[in-house]
Amino acid sequence: MSKPIKILSIFGTRPEAIKFFPLIHALDADPRFDSRVCVSGQHRGMLDQVLEIADIVPHHDLDLMQPDQTLDSLTANLLTGIGKVLDEEQPDWVVVQGDTATAMSGALAAYYRKIPVAHVEAGLRSGNIHHPWPEEVNRKIVGSFAALHFAPTETAANALKRETIDPATIHVTGNTVIDALHWITAQIENRPELAANLADLETRFSGKRIIGVTSHRRENFGGGMEAIADAIRQIAVRDDVAMIFPVHLNPNVRKVMNAELEGLDNVALIEPLDYPHFARLLDICTLMLTDSGGVQEEAPALGKPVLVMRETTERPEGVEAGTAKLVGTDTDMIVEECFKLLDDESAYAAMSTAHNPFGDGKSVSRIVEALAKS
Ligand code: UD1
Ligand code: UDP
Prior knowledge:
Belongs to the UDP-N-acetylglucosamine 2-epimerase family. Residues 26-371 form the UDP-N-acetylglucosamine 2-epimerase domain. It comes from Pontixanthobacter rizhaonensis. It is an enzyme of class 5 (isomerase). The chain is an alpha/beta fold. It folds into 2 domains: 5-175 and 360-373, 3-Layer(aba) Sandwich (Rossmann fold), CATH 3.40.50; 197-353, Rossmann fold (3-Layer(aba) Sandwich), CATH 3.40.50.2000. Helices cover 47% and strands 16% of the residues. The protein has helices at residues 14-28, 45-54, 71-89, 101-112, 135-145, 154-162, 176-190, 199-204, 223-235, 251-261, 275-284, 293-301, 316-321, 331-343, 345-352, 363-372; strands at 5-11, 33-39, 60-61, 93-97, 117-120, 148-151, 170-172, 209-214, 241-246, 267-270, 287-290, 306-308, 324-326. Helix 3 (71-89) crosses helix 4 (101-112), helix 4 (101-112) runs parallel beside helix 5 (135-145) and helix 9 packs parallel to helix 10 (251-261). It is globular and about 65 Å long. Residues 14-15, 18, 177, 214, 216, 246, 272-273, 275, 278, 292-295, 298 line the site of uridine-5'-diphosphate (UDP).
């Protein structure tokens, strides 16, 4: 048998880890590959939550998160840190996922060494470099030189073709987050205790409809976050709903949300949930209010409508399929659309039965076969 292909997977944040772990499981199990893992530690606690549940022990951990890190110091540390790992490992391929500072820097460090880059979740474009910020540009940078583009949908593949990327290098795979969600759901079925810690809140809020909330986007810091908090306060006036809000560890999020929302009886501000517990929240909620990318993809897979608190989205497929609605960061709009879903059965049914456009849970096998042929 020929020498295995040496793949270095590089990631650093919670969403990358979630979307990467099914691929790492597959590469580890496949003798055609020598699978190596480098984590930047761009997120510390929230990354470790995923590594633990997915049972991944990285070969390299740069541990470079700083409190309230700036984009420039983070990027500088990532480039130099990942560069050293690449010099040591000399992989045949580097694989990155998505649009974070780690993905962009990992890919760039590989490009500087002429190591080919495979990009998972390629081709998402909002068309606005300020939304999501700085992710729109991060993703475009990786796409500009990646040798393999794993586009989750036809829409993403077409965006790449419009940028004159060679179609032979583009593979439509679905989004690996659906593979991750299937895996975690099966784990919870076998071991319900993995997701049992929400029981107290479920009891406290029994008889109420649960709204799951997440918010963390940098472009929403300041006014956007305040408007979101205002909307949550107004929704909380209703006594037939309760909100469960795992608050992101970014201090810019916690400062606002803790100050604005602490002490409301039917709003539970809690620490970030590990993946099985977040899957449980998706399962028990009536709808999700979020500015997250990943949640826009997961919630429709479970038939949960998503109100997206962003001005624009690089995931228009959800909006087109009718599973998601863009509500921006306008307080009145968020409250109005939320009440509509709570009070209008047909509006709710239309969103909760729409088709999930983000994949069939078999993305990883498509990616693995494309890498094997590389
Ligand atoms: C990052 C990504 C964003 C992604 C988000 C997912 C970039 C530029 N941004 O944004 O694309 O949507 O992650 O959550 O790559 N912190 C902790 N512990 C953690 C994680 C974060 O304390 O486990 C705090 C730290 O103070 C850190 C700050 O949050 O400095 C910001 O983290 P950072 O990764 O820079 O940005 P995010 O807003 O999380
Ligand atoms: N998530 C989680 N615990 C939480 C909140 C989110 O495990 O408390 C998961 C969620 O299931 C999704 C991912 O984190 O897969 C989304 O990450 P985030 O919203 O931080 O980043 P984005 O997707 O916006 O880049």
